[in-house]
Amino acid sequence: MKFYLDYNYYFLTSRTIDGLNCFENEDNRKLLLGKILSMQSIYDFSYDSYCILRNHYHILFYLKTGKDVPKIIQKINGGVSFLLENISKPIWDSYYISNVFNQEAYYKVMGYILGNPWKHGLVEDIYDLNKYEYSNYNNLLTKYEKKSILEIIGNVKNLNWELNLPVEKYKY
């Protein structure tokens, strides 16, 4: 049985089948980003950080109504699958969802998400994260100083959240 809490932060990751690089194409990344951002107008949903990579995405978001979590995942993944015409179906392999219960976990997840383009070689080093368009790193510079964001990212050991956070994995 799955429980999704009201008024809670969630960490969502969804991966493509066999690590297929469905989002290497910029148009496909824009499509996925549009789907993620559109959740704000459909649900009482606000994202704190997100990142779209070649074969997966991450979102840290706050949701007032926990029972909407499965609907949000379906609308993002199902909507993108439906709209992508140049990719064979099915696209998605699995997703991971975790409640983020405290401030330490929140910053660990945020650091992991923001550092992911560097981890996956999409930027040369941590100082180039501002050049990656498919995360909200630059938006967060208005909330945090650059030094603080780099510290948040640097505090994530090897950017391996799987070792430190309880997550639930679901197959499609």
Account of the 3D structure:
The protein is of the alpha+beta class. The protein has one domain: Transposase IS200-like (Alpha-Beta Plaits, 2-Layer Sandwich). It is built from five helices and five strands. The protein has helices at 26-42, 69-83, 103-119, 137-140, 146-154; strands spanning 8-16, 45-52, 56-63, 92-100, 168-171. Helix 3 (103-119) packs across helix 5. The two termini are 16 Å apart.
Structure in a nutshell:
With 172 residues, the chain is of the alpha+beta class. Helix content is 36%, strand content 22%. Strand 2 (45-52) and strand 3 (56-63) form a beta hairpin.
Mind sketching the topology for me?
Elements: E1 8-16, H1 26-42, E2 45-52, E3 56-63, H2 69-83, E4 92-100, H3 103-119, H4 137-140, H5 146-154, E5 168-171
Antiparallel strand pairs: 1-3, 1-4, 2-3, 4-5
